[in-house]
Amino acid sequence: MTCDSIFVNAGNQILADGVKMVQKFSPMVLDEKITLLETSLERAADRLGDITEPVMKRYYDIHPEARDSFREHGLGNTVKLEAEMVESVVYCLMNWLESPQEIRIMFGSTVPHHEETLHVHTDWFSGLVDAAVHVIAETIPDTKQEERDLWEEIHQGVNDLIADARY
Description:
The protein is mainly alpha-helical. The protein has one domain (25-165): Globins (Globin-like). The chain contains 8 helices and 2 strands, in the order E-E-H-H-H-H-H-H-H-H. Strand 1 and strand 2 form a beta hairpin. The longest helix is centred in the C-terminal third of the chain and has 21 residues, at 145-165.
């Protein structure tokens, strides 16, 4: 015996409820994801302005040892280097959906170079991504689960890429 939404076996035991098997959210097409991404970034910009300061605060709170590296490599202009790095991370996050190969190429050469030549730990790379995503995600209302899910997807993708770029 079956009905439209319940699947049963020959012994009339319920095997699955078709209504409950439907995904909570239908898969978003790229355009919908980009719209959500833009909405999140606009909201963060409206609420925070330049996100460099809150991103770097969170980053240094978690990776205090990275501060000396920024001072050393900033060559007297640490603030400029911090802004450039946050801008680069945000660029990668913004473009991950449309151009993952471009981001893969960027990190594929940057991560090993920074590790080998500049002695910048790979965890510091992913830490800066974590901090940027955290700051942006804090501006997303709890009711906007699709936006939160999208940022988790982007975050995971970029951090997986960084991990793969390690020597």
